[in-house]
Amino acid sequence: MGQRAIQNGVDPKLAYARPDAYQLTQALGPHNNKYVQPDILFLELAEDSLFLLCSDGLCDNDLVEDHWETYLLPLLKSSQSLNKGMIRLIDFANNYNGHDNITAVFVRLKIRPKVNSQDW
């Protein structure tokens, strides 16, 4: 609700001071599936990519923006375990943010998987 208020021109400080500021406007579970109106976006990827879908417990205080090179960039390599990388990132976030629960999902997309030169 707070973000919706901001998109309608309300000052962010006022929007997040509302009692309902942190209520979800679209959520699976409390309503039937006709209630949720997802945004759909198509992307064309030209390079290997790592997508991170996470809750604010992980991304608050610019954690992802400030530490992506240390915690995310190495995970572009197929040899790196996404599971171990996620555990490392969540441990860091618990120490860095520590005020909220953390939910996160990684999706690694490889444009050109590692191939042997003999396969050419």
UniProtKB/TrEMBL annotation:
<dbReference type="InterPro" id="IPR036457">
    <property type="entry name" value="PPM-type-like_dom_sf"/>
</dbReference>
<feature type="domain" description="PPM-type phosphatase">
    <location>
        <begin position="1"/>
        <end position="109"/>
    </location>
</feature>
<dbReference type="InterPro" id="IPR001932">
    <property type="entry name" value="PPM-type_phosphatase-like_dom"/>
</dbReference>
<protein>
    <submittedName>
        <fullName>Probable protein phosphatase</fullName>
    </submittedName>
</protein>
